[in-house]
Design goal:
Largest interface: A-B, 37 and 46 residues
Radius of gyration of chain A: 37 Å
Number of domains of chain A: 3
Order of helices and strands of chain B: EEEHEEHEHHHEHEEEH
Shape of chain B: globular
Order of helices and strands of chain A: HHEEHHHEHHEHHHHEEEEHHHHHH
Largest sheet of chain B: 6 strands, mixed
Number of helices of chain B: 7
Number of strands of chain A: 8
Strand content of chain B: 25-35%
CATH architecture of chain B: 3-Layer(aba) Sandwich
Number of domains of chain B: 1
Structural class of chain A: mainly alpha
Strand content of chain A: under 5%
Oligomer: heterodimer
Structural class of chain B: alpha/beta
CATH class of chain B: Alpha Beta
Bound molecules: adenosine-5'-diphosphate, magnesium ion
């Protein structure tokens, strides 16, 4: 013993697992104490979760599209309530050099401007009428070849199915007209009526072609370019559709959700309109009877602001309770140093403790916030809004909640842990708590 | 045995310590020169506030002197970095405190095992060592009790077992009987003496407990941060009656 003078080496760092074990056993023993410290984090994260989950269900009352089709990329498919192009002034129309005086007069709107949508439509109708004449003429030829006995109704008005119709030479186009989706057969009298009506239809389209003949000289390619330049933006269309003013609509992230008559059956065909790159799933149709729903993003921003403020308050609270839990353990820390603990080990166990607490508390906080948010929305608006949530969005919010709680507690624990570790052991031991 | 034949475990040269609080400077130690031999049981006696604990912190590497040098096994402590100090505290010195300083969340066995974790001993070895030591201090039947479930004397026994965990060459005991009644205090003193004899560990004990006098090899009297006198045991026994504190 007397000659035993070991050389002094440097204390080796302990593996993280050791720190973890010590932390865990400490937390288990001080379970309720840790729980109270964690409660602050839990509340903060619950609130944050509520704000974000609410935003997923934060739709305004759906607006029913009453008439016509609108197309989100700014193209009109069918004459409808919502125009796709802006009205232009007569001067602009003349300056473009594309339109004759007659065309401009034909499209004059009540407000004294030129209705570009009507104009585009006129050019379309000129071509379309020719197609229709060709099509109907072809059908008439087919109808004339059919044996008249086939649609004779003098004795019985027979039912005719698709197969029999085809066998007897009824043209495809006529079959399509007579057999709308879901029907299996038509009456002979219906076919007889078609034979009567088809020449009248041809006459109708011939009249249309004359009516729109003033549009025939317009260069289609140039017209399309001109219209594209004057197309309404998506938000303009949506704002008209929902009665919002344009300025408000522009500030909003517009989402369109197709809800069936009976509400959402998780049928979220969302078209997100990103104002930055105008990148949206163009071509989506909103049909008569659909509901378009616009999320009130400004309300979400307001809540996020609230959540950030509450998180800040929460952070101060956590730092304080971490500081407390360090202060009340000064003596323990001093003792551990006497037993050979390195400063870094002491920092590690405090940071670990807060990280474990942070994760556990954020998890519980998320669950609480989620449940409250879902229940309140279900009671307020109905379950269809709950089920319309995209699980991926919910998962993202879950990740965000855990990350926020972890980051918050992690950074809150560093200053007190460092304070604890760098304090001279003698001072730590002197404290009498 | 003459002095130059014996090994020193601790030597201090001109150790001073000043505490500055605001404008006032308090000179807690006023230049302490002390040589402590290996295997010795030495008591540092002095009234409260005389600087015993401060001196202890210097020797134990828990605080740095304002001036002067502390050598542990001929190594100048001032030249050790934080990691080397931790190594020293872990393996060379064992600490015993007046208020026991057991970790409240750990059982007796876990408390004793903790220093072996810091010294890198394997878990099984550490537990074996812990049980052996707790048996030695007479607490083999209280392995899994928490400090709150133990009496003061039992807690101090756990602390003694813990201080011996890594077979240190020095035990620093700061008023080990200060919080104990007469009977338990005597038992703890006896236990320390036994460890001193059996393990050959040097015991440096700060105290104003006169029961220590009988079993100490030497007694260092401190007053107002300076060594008043150093006495061998042979001379003490006559003087006990004159002691004032
Ligand atoms: N950290 C400190 N700060 C200020 N004064 C201190 C500090 N530590 C000890 N002292 C003072 O140093 C003197 C010696 O204290 P201490 O060594 O604890 O005495 P003892 O252990 O002999 O009772 C006392 O007057 C005490 O108030
Ligand atoms: Mg003291």
């Amino acid at each position: 013993m007397a000659n035993d003078k070991p050389t002094i080496q440097r204390q080796t760092k302990l593996p993280l697992k050791t720190a973890f074990d010590i932390t865990m056993s400490g937390m288990k023993t001080r379970f309720w104490r840790s729980m109270i410290t964690a409660a602050g984090v839990m509340l903060g994260i619950a609130f944050l979760t509520m704000v974000f989950i609410n935003s997923l269900m934060d739709w305004q009352k759906p607006i029913r599209i009453e008439d016509g089709y609108i197309r989100i990329d700014g193209q009109i498919i069918k004459n409808g309530f919502y125009g796709a192009y802006k009205d232009i002034t007569v001067e602009e129309a003349k300056r473009s050099g594309l339109f004759s005086e007659a065309v401009i007069n034909d499209c004059m709107a009540e407000n004294g401007k030129v209705d570009l949508t009507k104009l585009y439509n006129g050019r379309y109708m000129y071509d379309h009428s020719k197609d229709m004449i060709d099509m109907r003429t072809e059908e008439l030829k087919g109808l004339e070849k059919i044996d008249e006995k086939f649609y004779d109704t003098s004795e019985v008005d027979v039912s005719i199915n698709k197969r029999t119709a085809k066998k007897n030479g009824v043209p495809e186009g006529i079959i399509k007209i007579l057999l709308p989706k879901g029907t299996k057969s038509f009456k002979a009298s219906q076919l007889a009526a078609e034979v009567q009506n088809t020449p009248l239809k041809i006459k109708f389209w011939e009249r249309q072609r004359v009516k729109y003949s003033m549009y025939k000289d317009i260069d289609k390619k140039k017209l399309t370019d001109f219209c594209t330049k004057n197309a309404k933006s998506v938000s303009e269309i949506i704002s008209e559709a929902s009665g919002l003013d344009e300025a408000t609509a522009d500030k909003r992230d517009v989402k369109i959700v197709k809800l069936g008559e009976d509400g959402a059956k998780n049928k979220r065909v969302s078209v997100s309109v990103d104002e930055k790159d105008k990148n949206y799933n163009g071509g989506y149709l909103v049909e008569t009877g659909d509901y378009i729903v616009i999320s009130d993003i400004t309300a979400t921003y307001r809540s996020i602001w609230l959540a950030i403020m509450s998180l800040l308050v929460c952070a101060v609270g956590i730092t304080n309770s971490m500081l407390m839990s360090v202060t009340e353990r000064f003596k323990e820390i001093g003792t551990m140093k006497c037993l050979g603990a390195l400063d870094s080990f002491i920092v590690t166990i405090f940071v670990l403790e807060s990280a474990i607490m942070g994760i556990a508390a954020s998890f519980i906080g998320f669950v609480i916030g989620f449940i409250i948010s879902v229940c309140s929305n279900a009671a307020d608006k109905g379950w269809k809004y709950v089920f319309a949530m995209n699980p991926v969005d919910v998962l993202q919010i879950f990740g965000l909640a855990i990350a926020a709680g972890l980051v918050l507690t992690f950074f809150a624990s560093i200053p007190p842990a460092r304070k604890a570790a760098t304090m001279p052991a003698a001072i730590a031991l002197r404290s009498e708590i | 045995m003459s002095d130059n034949q014996r090994d020193y475990v601790v030597r201090t040269r001109g150790v001073t310590k000043e505490f500055v609080t605001g404008d006032t400077v308090l000179q807690a130690l006023k230049g302490i020169d002390l040589d402590i031999y290996a295997g010795e049981y030495i008591s540092i006696m002095g009234p409260s506030g005389s600087g015993k604990s401060t001196f202890f912190n210097m020797v134990g590497g828990l605080d740095k002197p304002t001036s002067g040098t502390v050598f542990i096994n001929d190594v100048d402590m001032a030249q050790l970095d934080a990691q080397e100090l931790a190594y020293l505290r872990c393996r060379t010195i064992g600490y015993i405190f007046q208020s026991f300083n057991l970790l409240p969340v750990m059982t007796a066995l876990e408390n004793v095992t903790l220093p072996t974790i810091f010294s890198g001993m394997s878990r099984d070895e550490g537990i074996e060592r812990g049980i052996e030591l707790l048996n030695k201090v007479g607490l083999g039947h209280r392995l899994h009790h928490r400090p709150t479930e133990l009496s003061g004397g039992q807690q101090q026994r756990v602390a003694i077992a813990r201080s011996l965990a890594n077979s240190p060459s020095i035990i620093l005991a700061d008023e080990p009987t200060g919080n104990l009644d007469l009977k338990t205090g005597t038992e703890i003193i006896d236990l320390l003496k036994t460890m001193n004899k059996e393990q050959g560990v040097t015991i440096i004990s700060a105290t104003h407990d006169l029961k220590m006098l009988n079993i100490s090899d030497r007694i260092v009297w401190i007053r107002d941060g300076a060594v008043e006198k150093i006495e061998d045991r042979a001379n003490i026994e006559i003087k006990v009656g004159e002691m004032d504190h």
